[in-house]
Design brief:
Structural class: alpha+beta
Number of helices: 11
Order of helices and strands: HHHHHEEEEEEEEHEEHHHHH
Strand content: 5-15%
Oligomer: single chain
Radius of gyration: 21 Å
Number of strands: 10
Shape: globular
Strand order of the largest sheet: 1-4-5-8
Length: 379
Amino acid sequence: MHLELSPDQAACQSTAASFAHDHVAPAAAHIDESGEFPSALVAEAAARGYLGLRVPKEFGGTALDHVSYALTIEAVARASATVAVILAVHNSLVCDVIARVGTGDQKQQWLRRLATGETIGAFALSEADAGTDAANQQTVAARVDGGYRLNGRKVWVANGAVAGIAVVFAATEPGARGRGVTAFLVPLDRRGVRREPGVDSLGVRGLGCVDLVLDDLAVTDAERLGDENAGFTIARQALESGRIAIAAQALGVGQAALDEALSHARTRQTFGRPIAQYQAIQWFLADMATELEAARLLTLKAAAAADNAEPSGALAAMAKLAASEAAHHAADKAMQVLASAGYRRGSTVERLFRDARATEIYQGTSEVQRMIIAASVFD
């Protein structure tokens, strides 16, 4: 067993940390306050190859292994959870999906544009009644000559405000649940697509979340992604990989919370000494560090399993569960350590506290992760 990073993996981590420190961190508070999609910052990320992290080199990507990818997402999330999720959705849920199941023409048409940032990708699976129960797709794709007509509404579509392409899921056999769902590559400038403002979220603000309203949208057979009625499997595989990235994002948020708590504990004094000298504070910090490190090892184990083409679905669920709950606990304890300094609006810890909570919800709630893990235990 080797627990050390390879030189290439360590270099990816270091480079991402520098980018996050120099470019992402200074913009993080404004992104959260404004709730605006950080287009200029995403363009900077694209110029450094961060929109093609998982794209094969033949299409202009960097083709990182899963471990390097997770390390990169964690480093970016330590500065901004929002930017990390933008990258994770684009890479895990769009680029990875096209690279894995797309036709040769689909790869040629989209992957280079996605890798360079010419086009941003979005993933449209969730609906008002199809979140945790993602098989309950109410968006319908009706067969017509040469293709399909899509009608329905997708919600919480991250990157959707600026995306040029979306992976959209719809029922080709309504009522058949997961057995009757098909995936499509939908250009979002097409007639029949309408973007409507999504709700204002508590945390991870600035994701460009919108609702996509599909009104008699025409798509061709060539824009179907994978086989007809294979869409639910495509979504499941995408989310399994994506959960490793979300675990890494959660780790970045949690580590940032620990950093804030450590800094405050060293400088804040009560009764003539730094609060870091009090055992109660030390135990808070010890618990935070231990939970985050345990979740980090589990996340890297899941990433390594994916790199070795080993079954990683349950490990990805464990990683996301452990990392998101460790991040939540870290943000909560950091708030307690900083007390009024952290509780005020606009503090870094207040932002991290809101951001951490989202990691327990999207790409499968903690309850869903426990269901997946339990199924593997009983298998």
